[in-house]
Each structure stands twice: as C-alpha cells, then as structure tokens.
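pinned: reference chain
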Amino acid sequence: MHTTATDVQPQPLTRELRPVWVVSAAASAVALVVTELYGLAARLAGVPMAAAGFGQAKAGPVNAGSFAMGVVICAFWGTVLAVVLARFARRPARVYLITTIALTAVSLFAPLSAADTATSTKLTLAVGHILAAAVIIPPVTRRLTRR
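pinned: its structure tokens
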C-alpha cells in the first residue's frame, strides 16, 4: 500500500497533565533540598543558627533538617489548598497565587520577630521562607492554570 503525505493525519500535541498534588509534591521536594542546602551554606558562612520559637524567650539551635521540616509542613497544607482549589474554585490559579503569597508574607513574622535571635539569623530564616515559596508557588500556579 502506498501512502502520501495527505493520508497521514497529524497527531495532536497533547500532554497529559499531572495531578495537582503530584506537581505540588515534586516542587516541595525540590524546595526541601534547596532550603536545606541554603541552610548549610548559611552555617558554613558563619550565620549563628539559633533562634527562639514562636512565644519562646530563649533561642535554641536550628538543626539540620529544620528547614526541611518547615517545608514539609507548609507544603502539605499548600498541597491541600491547591487540590481543593483545583476542584472547587472558579479561578484556582489566581486564588492559589494570592493566598500563598499572603501566607508567605505572614510566615515572615515568625523569624523576623524571634526573641534572642541574631539579626543575621532572622534574615537568613526569612529568606529561607521566601526561597521555599519561590520554588513551590510558580509550578503549582502554572498547573492550576491548565484544566
């Protein structure tokens, strides 16, 4: 059988969308690694990694894994938010973006107001929050834009 160029139908360029939770989990895993490396770099640069927790008067050590634990907790709730918005919101990407940026801003209160904590540590921890958000929010927002 002989086929010509007009006999071959082009295949549509469709890419299966990954579930929102998968995109969020993947971005969160990347953020976990990035923030832990950032924390390690801060330690190596001599930033004193001791901070008081919310409501505490005395600083305690910020151990290896502390950045990761913070990312895991916030990423879990961010993933829940993204999945719920994907299911029920009329404009999930917009709502997710606005909400997560606002929550990131609110999250800066904890490190910046920590008692008995060096200014360099406060700034390092605050930048860690922003860094994690910068890694997670864009890909999840992009995924929520596609239905």
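why pinned: Strands lie at 50-51, 60-61. The two ends are 41 Å apart (CA to CA).
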